Amino acid sequence: MPAPRLSQSAEAARAAALQAEFNEKKWVWVPDDKEGYLAGWVVKEEEDMGEVVIASGGEIRRLPLYALSKMNPPKFDRVDDIADLTFLNEASVVHNLRLRYGSGAIYTYSGLFLVAINPYQHLPLYSDAIVHQYRGKRRDENPPHIFAIAERAWINMGEERENQSILITGESGAGKTESTKKVIQYLAAIATDAHPPQSHSQSPSLTHSNSFNSIMPTAGLPRTSSFKKHGKGMSSSGSGFTAKDRLGLLERQILQANPILEAFGNAQTQRNNNSSRFGKFIRISFSPDGSIAGANIDWYLLEKSRVVVRSEAERSFHVFYQLMEGGGSLKDTLLLDGGVEDYEYLNKSRREVDGIDDKEEWALLKNAFETVGFTVAEQLDLFRIVAAVLHIGNITITETRSNDAVMPDPSQAERVCHLLGITVAEFTRAVLRPRVLAGREWVTQARTQQQALDELSALCKTLYEKSFGMLVDRINRALDRPSSKSTFIGVLDIAGFEIFDVNGYEQLLINYTNEKLQQFFNYHMFTLEQEEYAREGIEWDYVNFGLDLQPTIDLIETSGNAIGILSLLDEECIMPKATDLTFTNKLHALWASEPLPGDEPHPGSSKYEPARFEQGFIVNHYAGRVEYRTDGWLEKNKDPLNDNLTRVLSASSERYVASLFAEYSEAPSLVGALTMGKKRVTKKGAFRTVGQRHKEQLAGLMAQLQATQPHFVRCIVPNTHKKPGRVDVPLVLDQLRCNGVLEGIRIARLGYPNRLPFVEFRQRYEVLTPGVIPRGYMDGRKACLRMVDALELDKANFRIGTSKIFFKAGVLAELEERRDTLLFDIFSRLQAVARKWTARRQMKKILNRAVAIRTIQRNARVYGELRDWPWWQLYTKVRPLLGSTRNDDELRKKEAELALAKERAERDQREKEALESLKMSLEAEKRKVEDNLEAERALALDKDALLDRSKKREAELEDEVAALQADLDTLDSQLDRALKLQKESEEKHETLRHAFDQAAEHLVRLESEQQDWESREVELNEQLDLAQEDIDAIKAERDNLEKLSDELKNLVAQREEDLGRTKERMESTLSDLGTKLTAETRNKRTKRSA
User: Fold this and answer.
1) Are 350 and 313 in contact (CB under 8 A)?
2) 177 assigned to a ligand binding site
3) Which of 288, 805, 832, 1047 is 20 to 30 Å from 258 at the Cα level?
4) What's the angle, vertex CA 521, arms to CA 519 and CA 525, rounded to 5?
5) 584 given a catalytic annotation
6) Is 275 a catalytic residue?
7) What's the pTM?
């Protein structure tokens, strides 16, 4: 919970106490393994080492001085913009974020972008009243907020007529999805506020040429940091601003597209209960008058593997559980007759999430479908795919002794085939015994149990991914309008940089995307800085920070002489005997080997290292070193699905299912694949790998972003326990590096991040240079030059422009310290003089009292002595009588004096009132003159600049006039020649007109001939159709003859085998008979001889 708000006096006293404590010691940040950084102060320095006392426990540590980070003064605590810190280091950045987060401020600016830390609780920061507060206000008029970024994009789009983009990145659980929804909420609200709901079927009329700026409320809510818990959704409490009730149909459809995308694309993970498992770029188009004219959504990198497998502590996509909890009669239609625990793809992981009611979310999903315009049939088609995935997961596959896969229970397959509109026999054959092309022949291949299960998993992933893509296309059609579109604001919600214990192919694609986005951010950020330097006339050597990341990008994506990781992976996917190991070895040979003598090493080689212990490699990204494991990369990149299944599904009787696989419907059949009668058709997208598709999508995204003016939001996860108010400093530091926050600070250090207008610089620091600036008016730039000379600043640490003075990081801190020291000395002496005066005054009072007491005592003693003396008593009685004769005269004199004094007092009072009124009028006139003088000074500066530009323009115009005069003389001569040519052309025109008439007659004859040829073409087409039918019949007859020929060949082969066996038996019989004959002959001879 945020800390209680202090009164102004208490806050000032607290700030003064902290500043006094800070000035007493040399405070630094000490690196710590557990806490990240600890506060401490240096007590001793010896060469490069120093002794530091840790503030939290008093421990003394001896550390090298370079490891310490300077601490900012307490007045910079909880600063709205990190770039305002005088010491830009990691410790100061994370300390400021921690202080703001602890006080309830989840948003902080960091130069050009916004840092948003997930609060893990509902905060009243997004009501219609807050929308009204940020509407039409500058960034510095309100606390940091996501609405301020959206407002800046809206204003820039209206004023500059340039497309805008808001890039929201961060880890899972950082709040990217919620930030995206808040941006869309704000844009829909202010567009509706600017233009009341109207029909979007026609283009709205243009009533004002600059309506972006003509409708801005002038009042806002006071800045506050109090937070109260509220429920889900957009709060409308706190003001009478009811933009939500006035949303038009298109605005409501844009907002209601989010629940649909979240149901089908979000899931519960260990870090986030509603994590987007895909990236999206939402373009909201606006018409020229500022009203919303349509929207479009592009999606990237859907985690389709989640439908099949995930961690035990996570869930699949929300829609599965919503359908099972709230489906009702729809479940019967989809043959879903059990609960979550009855389906294999759901029962092995988490089933419920705290704080999420799946039945309630189902009702919201159905309402969103109706708002966006989905028909009941379209909804049924989407849920048909969801149910089919669940049924496929329940299909049981076993194997025989020969390791052949079999399906013992076909009931689940029958349900799948019923939902998908295909036959059970074809589906079973495609899964268990698909036909594959071996050379020029089709053969049946028996699958093993694991191969069949993998085939079913691949089918589920493909079905869900294609259905998700079709869903997004349908939403885009609903959000499209025929009205004129002028500009758009795009919101990019994509996963940030990822470094896990085991990093695979998905992490490479995500990190490659973030490498490109960071290069875009670096270029844009410093391009703006350098443009301001140019406007201010500062000497500056242009630096292209986008090149810093180019070697890593080339290492991943390049092709040509040097083959990048993705290009080599695509190449290996088409090699017949390629494996993950051969791919890894080729990578090592290309990027880790020494270049040949005389060859320059590729810049990407410095970013690549072979992994030491595992099969993989290491890439040095901008956010750190990442080790990738290459196991299974070839299969993930090819994303295989056998042709048998795609052909079966493309021929589905369900139109929606067939449309998902329409690209495979043109594939040649098994029988006709080798025929020569038709030209073989190549399947659309058959050779496009996952890497190729992602590179194409990323190139398109970057092209869109480069055509826009970007705004950046970096979302941060404060802790891994999802607890509000807690900050894990090492975790936050790691994300700051990965999100490029610290990279942006590194860039800022090379430039001049701190800047002040001349007037402000002079007012604040003139006290450090007394007597340098003479009395009277002096130009601001000249005054600053005199001041920096007197301050003896190094010229390398500052630059003076035309209206501002720029400083390197840390220079203003040094000036602040010098100013604080001087003011401390001045006020110390002032306090000493004041204390001296008050002490002397008090002493005088004491002395005067002592004298008065002694006088009173003396008079009392004298009175005591005279009180009883008779002569004194007589004197006291006679004394009043001595003056009684003069009392009347004195009374009249006193009355005259009193009347004169009254008259003088009245005259003095009238003169005093007249002088006071004169004084007030003179002071008002003085203020007016001073204001006019300041305005005249500013106007004089503008007029000087305008005069210089006018003189330059005058010289340019004089040159142009001289050139135009010369051109005029030339044109006069050309005009004479043109008149002559005109006469000649008129004569030629008559000739050509005559020729044209003849050509027209010829054209009529040709048209009549064309009609004859068209009729003849129709007759030939009819004959061609008849011939085609004959060809088909002949083909069918040929197929029958081929089958008959195969049967005859088989019969001949059997007869030949029988004949061979008979021949062998006869030969063996003949040999036996011959043997017997020989023996008989020998016996006869023996008998004869005997």
Assistant:
1) yes
2) yes
3) 288
4) 125
5) no
6) yes
7) 0.64
